[in-house]
TrEMBL record:
It comes from the Archaea. The chain crosses the membrane at residues 19-37, 43-62, 74-95, 107-124. Keywords: Membrane, Transmembrane, Transmembrane helix. This is Holin. The lineage of its organism: Archaea, Methanobacteriati, Methanobacteriota, Stenosarchaea group, Halobacteria.
Amino acid sequence: MANDTSLGARLKNDLLEDFTVSVVSALLAILALLPFYRMGFSVTEIGPLLLAIAVFLPYAYTEYWPIRYSGSAAVIWTVSAALVTTGVFIGTYQLAHSYVSVQYDSGIAFLVTVVVQYGTAALFKRVHETS
């Protein structure tokens, strides 16, 4: 079972697949860092949010989201997903900060946010496939 495409061609395809979502996610993570840092949050507190936006958001899109967007539609999807991710993270962070030890609040917010990201994408994929 030989693969007809070269390693270079497969690598290029993997890197450029969903390139818009990856680039916009990375830029949004950097943009999210600035206001939170100015509000007094440390990078260790908001680092998981940056990771959820820059890494896990493109991965959820590539692996679970059933529809592929290009151009401005991909940008709009990414911005919308990043806003939802940020909202879930902030809400969970505030709840965890109120009820749990301060050293765990960011980690709890990260875990809940990633579960919501993947759960939403997987649910949408399932609904899309059954309809």
